[in-house]
Amino acid sequence: MSRQIGNAFQTPTLVELEARVRGLETQVAHLTEMLEALTEEGPAPN
Q1: What's the CA gap between 32 and 35, in Å, rounded?
Q2: What gap in Å lies between CA 19 and CA 25, rounded to an integer?
Q3: Extended strands (E) in the chain
């Protein structure tokens, strides 16, 4: 099975890698915004 998976794998192109990086950068930006918003609200009451 692993041999079949390995044979089917193709190295991503530079364009595909750049698209993945842009997507990850966007996700990080959104998570950062959400974290900042939560931090500004202060700690949750117990």
Answers
A1: 5
A2: 10
A3: none
